[in-house]
Amino acid sequence: MSIFFYNLRPEDELPFARQCSEQYGIPFGYCLDYPSPENYHLAKGYDAVSCTPCDMSRPVVEAFHDLGVKYITTRSIGIDHIDRVRARELGMRVGNVTYPSTGVASYAVMLILMCSRRMRDIL
């Protein structure tokens, strides 16, 4: 199994990807950009692509299939941005992450506190 990450954040996701790669022996590649026709080719030779919510419509899914990708995973709860019907027709699997309800609630409270304190962007 090998994974290509699109829109990988170097400040928090990249160290985690490196740690998992070393721990589980899963090779990976990445770029900082969202998937686009100019960078689809970067996923050639990888079993899976991982993305955040972005355009994963029929033409994008087909482009990845043509490159040999078998799995599409999103680093988000929702998967409505992925054409799951076309992926299924092509024999590709689609997956997403899960978050505990308390995690979502904690995040919401944090956002409320940040707004009330007029916090600026952290990144």
Structural overview:
By secondary structure, the chain is of the alpha/beta class. The chain has 4 helices and 5 strands. A 5-stranded parallel sheet has the order 2-1-3-4-5. The protein is globular and about 50 Å long. The two termini are 32 Å apart. The mean pLDDT is 92.
Report how far apart the termini are: 32 Å
Strands, total number = 5
Query: What's the total helix number?
Result: 4
Which term fits the overall shape? Answer: globular
Beta fraction of the residues? 5-15%
List low-confidence stretches. none
- N-to-C SSE string, H for helix and E for strand: EHEEHEHEH
- Rounded mean pLDDT score: 92
Q: Structural class of the helices, strands and pairings?
A: alpha/beta
Q: What integer value in Å does the Rg equal?
A: 16 Å
Give me some keywords for this one:
35% helix; 5 strands; alpha/beta
Secondary structure: elements and pairs:
Elements: E1 3-5, H1 13-24, E2 28-30, E3 48-51, H2 58-66, E4 71-74, H3 84-89, E5 93-96, H4 101-116
Parallel strand pairs: 1-2, 1-3, 3-4, 4-5
Describe this structure in a few short sentences.
With 123 residues, the protein is α/β, with parallel strands linked by helices.
